[in-house]
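**Fold in tokens:**
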Amino acid sequence: MSQFAINVLFVGASFAIYIGIAIWAKAGSTKDFYVAGGGIHPITNGMAIGADWMSAASFISMAGLIAAGGYANSTFLMGWTGGYVLLAMLLAPYLRKFGKFTVPEFIGDRFYSKNARLVAVVCLIVASVTYVIGQMAGAGVAFSRFLEVDATTGLIIAAVVVFCYAVLGGMKGITYTQVAQYVVLIIAYTIPAVFISLELTGNPIPALGLFSEHSESGMPLLSKLNQVITDLGFNEYTADVDNKLNMVLFTLSLMIGTAGLPHVIIRFFTVPKVADARWSAGWALVFIGLLYLTAPAVASMARLNLMTTIYPEGPTAEAIQYDERPNWMREWEVTGLIQYEDKNDDGRIQLYNDTEAFAPTAEQRGWEGNELDVNRDILVLANPEIANLPGWVIGLIAAGGLAAALSTAAGLLLAISSAISHDLIKGSINPRISEKGELLAARISMSVAIVVATYLGANPPGFAAQVVALAFGIAAASLFPALMMGIFSKRVNNYGATAGMLTGLVFTLVYIFIYKGWFFIPGTNNLADTPENWVMGISPLSIGAVGAIINFAVAFAVSKSTAAPPQEIQDLVESVRYPKGAGTAVDH
């Protein structure tokens, strides 16, 4: 059986399972559509959260970023896992106690303001749309290689599949689909990692193999990797980070962005009682940890495999001839995600860090520039092929990559459609809308969101994990402070919360747009996205933490200069802070 047929078999079977589950778990009411009826078991919910959380950025792109940047990019691991600790301790049980369907609904009721609710809807949509771009881009990467279609066609296929199970099943269908997707993606991620760890170190546990000896050289694996890449002008894989401020702010942005992401928060509304919300977060950490503990090993081994493929005799010896490149490279070249240019006409592939510091060494070796451009998002997906693993492993990781992208995309699309149908239409435009009409509006909203997400996914502004990091920054700067103040401060009022969210959102978006080159301001058109141009060395990916600080400051300042919230609101905050009882979700 050809590799293409194997890929189609694995991907097709997984898609059939997802759509079958959606038909079985079809939402029959708004409560089913928004919160799966409120009766999901904590373990089931924890697994669904794991799939919802481990997006294309986690499955496809995170290891690629770590592989390219080494220790410096471990912030993705620290921020995304640390965020769940915050979520479990500071938000999940209290929001479940409040008993609403959506994040904007909580903000609107807590701050007794339709304006606050509408601003929260805007913040949610901006963050979620930015996030979903990364998922659709990741789906396009996976489809373009494994089903041998162009990225646009792949996005359309992914959109059709999401439409079938998300629009039909709502949260109820998505929950059980995500359980299946978690099983697929965790098996797909760990099995190739086990094979590769055995091959490189003899240790079947990738996380331990990372700190084991390299079988061929007898050196510690990370020392071997450091030796290979430093001989080619790259920084040491384990090198420390120069800009500690940016690293801390980036980690913080990812952490509080995690705790403020609406598509994750709404999952805690699906369990029967408050205690189950805590247990769901705990189980989610277990399920997420299985992948995140493996990711650093996958990244290191992928980087080493790539470099030794190009320089089989070592980095100081001759590189392979382009005409003799391995089949996996030929296949990925078709997608455009690997590009080669022979700059010195020697017919060989020169892969090195083309910097001024390494220029004398490159000139001595007769090199005239780096000749191979490898998209970071392909490393996890290409790793089994680079290591010459069996065809069924390659098919499995194809299904896993798509499961990761589609599971998170579905959760995000549900959050967007809920904000439009429940918070915008029912909450402001037509409060008297029937349940049947609201359910129809939710499905239409999700359909439109899928179309928009597909278009944007075809034109992403960066790597999947980079785009996702921007979404986290937006959520951190806008929604997280409002949620925290809504739970833990009796004094913050509607004016303060609204002003804080708007200020945090606008500040963060302006900084991102300027330094990503998406927004023209006279006199700043020459600002490139480089550390030399960033304010105090703070990157656009880290600015969400600063936006959150500004949000808090503005909210408290405005609240202090205006009237205190009504007594009934202060009493409500007091009751939410002590999450006793079942906290049954309110029917609408």
Q: What stands out?
A: The longest helix spans residues 151-201. The chain is about 70% helix and 0% strand. The first strand starts at residue 338 and ends at 340.
